[in-house]
Amino acid sequence: MSVAKGSSKGLTEQVGHADHGGQVASAAIVSAADMAFEQAGDDALVRARSFAQPLLANETMASGENVLAHASAVAAILRTIGGSEAMQAAAYLVYACAHLQRPREVIARAFGDSYADLAVEVNKLIHLQRQARLQTPGALVGKAITPTSELATSLALNQTENVRKMLLAFSRDLRVVMLRLASRLQTLRYYAASKTTPDFSVAQEALNVFAPLANRLGIWQIKWEVEDLAFRFLEPVTYKQIARLLDEKRGEREVYMAAAVQHVQTALRKQGVDAQVSGRPKHIHSIVKKMRGKSLDFDHVFDIRALRIVVPDVDACYTALAYVHQQYVPILEEFDDYIAKPKPNGYQSLHTVVRDADGLTMEIQIRSSGMHEHAESGVAAHWAYKEAGTKGYSGVSASSATTAKLQCCASCWLGSAT
């Protein structure tokens, strides 16, 4: 939707700047927005950034990050997981809301009802989460709370439940949830890059609410990174210990994995299977979780050495599995067939753990290219957006049974007890 020339007066009357410092003249805002609308045509992403820039360029988040930079980073994260340009545009409009006197009216007039409703709803959720965090005793008195303290445990449970309930209230539109997931990931990235430490509650929410939610939605890229970054802040000593062990054995492991990749890929191709074999990244939180859950030392954690085999179709998955089990000794109790029985979020893959001739274990995932695409982007690969504004926020719907199931998954998890 474009804004007609001569409409600046109406917008000027509605656009205002919240009292956060760094005043921006309404005329400048309208001028920048109108110019973007006229030049960008129907490119909502370009228009949204141009609209938000004069509002956000000099604003700072509680973390210390520039708000415009945060919005751009959120849009980039959404792009990497397959989010539409419309959703990326919403990342800017969400933060612009706080600096508009009548945000819904202004954004609806410039971009349409769907954008306006989404931006206002996400902004509302941000405000509720911020208020809940400020009400925790640790935040109020400024005390440093250690993850092992009794107070920390109690606060974490309460805060996790509060955030879960808030997300549940907004989960009818998965776009809201995805925008908040991307924002939390960017906040953690910023703290890591700036070598500063977030409030305990920020990291705890990330680990206990946002990472499991990303898992339920099948957005594993976000899940793994949120877990590792949150764990880095919550248990820095343990994080550094495992990171050091991974680094110390990196050379030895890389030589082993390079040989395994070459061997498996060559052998499968000789059998007529067009396989793409690669090593999988190592996630510190996952390693620690397995060490604690199974009472293992570092060297005996299965996925320190891990392969992923991507093949064209389902038949090739089982052909690859048969080969792997012939060449190595399978640990049968560690085998899972998520192709025959997919996870509730739609995830499909074969998982197996094998031992080589020297007794070293290796975890192997086998999946088709279609399964791999789903595993990488999850709900973003299926979600369709009604952006025209004909039905607005309540009109957003899933475009497939898979997405409807994912939405149900998220709502059911959010509604369950901790």
Question: Summed up, what is this model?
Answer:
With 418 residues, the chain is of the alpha+beta class.
Account of the 3D structure:
Helices cover 61% and strands 7% of the residues. With 418 residues, the protein is of the alpha+beta class. The N terminus is likely disordered.
The chain-level structural class is: alpha+beta
Mean pLDDT: 77
Order of helices and strands: HHHHHHHHHHHHHHEHEHEEEEHH
Shape: globular
Beta-strand segment tally = 6
Keywords:
418 residues, 6-stranded mixed sheet
Q: Helices, strands, pairings?
A:
Layout: H1 8-14, H2 26-40, H3 44-56, H4 67-80, H5 85-96, H6 103-111, H7 113-134, H8 137-141, H9 150-170, H10 174-194, H11 200-217, H12 220-234, H13 236-248, H14 250-270, E1 276-279, H15 284-293, E2 306-311, H16 314-327, E3 329-330, E4 336-337, E5 350-355, E6 361-368, H17 369-377, H18 401-415
Parallel strand pairs: 2-6
Antiparallel strand pairs: 1-2, 3-5, 4-5, 5-6
